[in-house]
Structure formats: structure tokens, C-alpha cells
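Worked problem 6 (solution included).
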Amino acid sequence: MTSKTVLEIRNVSKHFGAVKALTAVDFRLERGEVHALCGENGAGKSTLMNVIAGVLHPSDGEVLIEGAPVKIASPAIAQSLGIGLVHQEIALCPDATIAENMFMAATNRRRSALMNYAQLERDAQAVMNRLAPIDVSQKVGDLPISSQQLVEIAKALTLDCRVLIFDEPTAALTETEAQVLFGIIRDLKARGISIIYISHRMAEVFNLCDRVTVFRDGRYVATEKIADVTPDDLVRLMVGREISQLYPDKPHPSERSGEPILSVRDLGDDARFRDVSFELRHGEILGVGGLIGSGRTEIAEGICALRPVTQGEIRLHDKVLRLRRYSDAAKAGVVYLSEDRKGSGVFLDLSIAQNIAALDLKALTSLGLLNSRKERVLAEDLTCRLGVRMGGVDMPVSSLSGGNQQKVAIAKQLAVDPKVIVMDEPTRGIDVGAKSEIHRLLRELAHAGIGILVISSELPELIGLCDRVLVVREGRIAGEVSGDEMTEEAIMRLASGIGSASETNLKASGHAA
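Solution. The predicted structure is:
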């Protein structure tokens, strides 16, 4: 313990039954530093943060604040000790306003029976304006995921913290919103506030943080100064092995038949998108890029009958689909993986096996009774293929890390033998090792004849994984890039409406003024 140490974790373990989420881990946070915590999903990062924040109680070990041992029995006690946590998963009350969510902890501590709502909204708006011009009188349930993430961050900023924990804070943010957050974090650091920063995005870790601690399989591995390590060093510490290729090799165009699996013509909903036309071909992974709010997700929901469409046509293997609801789409073989894992991707309180079987219970039912043996065999097969880290398929999905929950959500789609899988941010919040596994899986599925449509906000993922990328702007397909034209600049120019992909690449190569 040094005089600069604000928070110290000594020999902390946390067990969930037979599952050891943390085993005798150590961690030290200095005053006024931004300290990254890295590791694969299931490494124990979020578990430790929940111990520090009073959400979970350690099985063994101790937590010290300013050198003094403390018992953090609840989030309220953690906040009274000056510890704030921005959750990876949205933990807001959807029926309350933004302002009410932001000051909920302070409201609970009030002794007065009367609330000055006008002052509450003024205080909340002043904090929110540091992040984005969002009206705090709105209900949280009416906001998109990216705005809800900003509310989570704003809520933490209202606390008088000496330790502030950010768990994957930029996973749902635009690049502009993320840059604003980075400025706020640097300002907090300058004021002597200590930051624990969890992220799978290497650029953020190396641009923002002073030191990094790595966990693997629930155990402490190492702590290094950022200046003394490279991204490759960090990946090796995280996964315990070399990851030589994050993205699998793409097939040569001649290896793809060119025949369409899915054809969309002039699709629109009279609100968020219109005149959308494209083809998804055999043997390819088709990417969809664009800024958050451009209509990417709404188009995907329209294709899968999760949102009503008012015009256009969808064909699967040249047969017109008549879809009234999502169950019709799933029955036809078109399935959707939501970007909102917690809200729409999985049933947290059900078991892993029950989640995986959820889309097609009829296939596992005989005479009105569910065949639990078939359900287990299906779940064990798919969790093995996807490398889900778990204690068994009977465990609730809520017991898994965020990345393993995402793998279960993907397994649920694969359980119905789909013809087309529409994936919205399939690797959001997933570590580098799991991303590599999922990218490999998606390429294998495309090679096997399944149509893969991937929406992603990560430009390197679109470029590294996909054979072609459609760019959406203001509810329309602004253009398409492929081959050598598939660059970050080309995608961003189309997304922002600056120019065509061909113009972008001509300028980049110096052939145009």
C-alpha cells in the first residue's frame, strides 16, 4: 500500500456454487489514474467491479479504501464511500424520466416528503448537457440504447466519487459521443478522481489509460504501465495464446455462386426507412454500416417482421415471403439477433438450455410435453460449438458473463437451422478471443450456405469480416463498397453524405482533386 493508493483488493475470491468467478485476485488503484482492466469474457472483470460496487459480496478476501478495510454490503454503502459504477448492461428504470433516474440514489436518501421537480430537472439537464443535448424530462424507456448508455454515464457523474468504474462505456456510443466521454474522463483524472476502465477496444485502452491489469479465468495475471506494453503483448496476456488472425480468410469471388438467398426490393415503413433494395448472396457475409440512428436496425427489424413495413417485397430463395410477425419469419428461416442482449437477446432468468430451445419448442415437444433430453443435447452441442464458458446448460443465463450471454443468444438463432441470420452488433462487448471465434463461426455458416447479414458500428469489423458493405444514411442505402473500395474513409463518407465510394477512393489515391 502506498500513500497514493485509493483502492486495494487483497486476495478476493467469489464463487457461484461450483463456479469460481474470482480466485484470490489482487488489484490496486492509485489516486488520479485511469487504470484499464482487461481480459476475455468470463475472466472476472465485471464480477470484481460488482464486488467493489457492493452489488456482490466476496466469498473471501478484503477491500481497502485509503488503507482501511471496508465491508461494502450494498451499492448504497459503495456510493457513501465514494465509489460509482457505470454498468455494461443498462440498469435504468424505463418508466421513470431521465432526471429521476439520474438522481434516484440522492432521492432515496432525502428526508423531505416533497420533491422540487423543477430543480431536479435543471440539475439533471446541466449534467446531461456535458454529454449530449438530450431532454431529461423524457422517459428512459423511449430512448434508443445509445442514449440510455449516456444516461448511465450521466447518473454516475452526479455522484461525488473518488473512484469511478466504467464497464464497456462506449459499446453503444457513436464515435462523437465516445470522444466527449474521453474528454470528461481526462477532466475527472485531472481533478484527482481515480478511474477503472474496462474495455475490449485496444485503441481506447492505449489512448486513455495509464496502467493496465489483466485477468484470465478469474485470476490475476499481471499489471503493466501502458507505455511498457503493446496491443499484441496485452492480447497474449489476456488469452494465454497467440491470436494470429482476428478475421478468417475471405473466399475468392469465384467461390461464391452469386445466386441470391435473400432479395429485398423497395422496402419501406413510411417512417424510418424507404426504397431499400439489396441482395444477400450465397457464400458471402454482407455488412451494413452507417451512423447510429441512420435506420440500420429499423431495416433489419422490417426484414424480420419485428417492425411493420408498408411497401416493398422480400424474397427468400426467390419465393415471396408474407410475414405478419417475427414467428412467421423464424418459421421461414429468417432470424434476428438484437443489439440489446439484455432486453431482447436472452431470457436472463431461464436456463441456458431453455434459452437455446426457445425459438422452436415444437421440434422438442411430443404429445404436448417437452423432451428435456433433446433440449439438453441441443444446448450442449451448440454451447460446445460456440465455446460458452459455463457450469452447465441448466444454469441461468444471468450467471454468465456478458460475452457468454451473447454466445447463448447466437446459439438460440442457430437452433432453428436458419437460412438467413440478421445480426445487429453481434460482437458488442465481446473480448478479442471471443470475437475471433464468432467471426470464424460466421464464415463457416456462410460457407455452409446460410445467409449472414451483419450490422456493426465497428468499421474494422465490417472491413475485416464482410465481403461487401451496404452503407445506410437517413433511412436509405447510400451506397455499397467491396474489394479495394472497402476502406474506413469510403464508408464514413457515404455514411455522412460527403460523396460516393468511388470518389472517396480516387481522392485517397491522389487521382482526384
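Discussion: The two ends are 60 Å apart (CA to CA).
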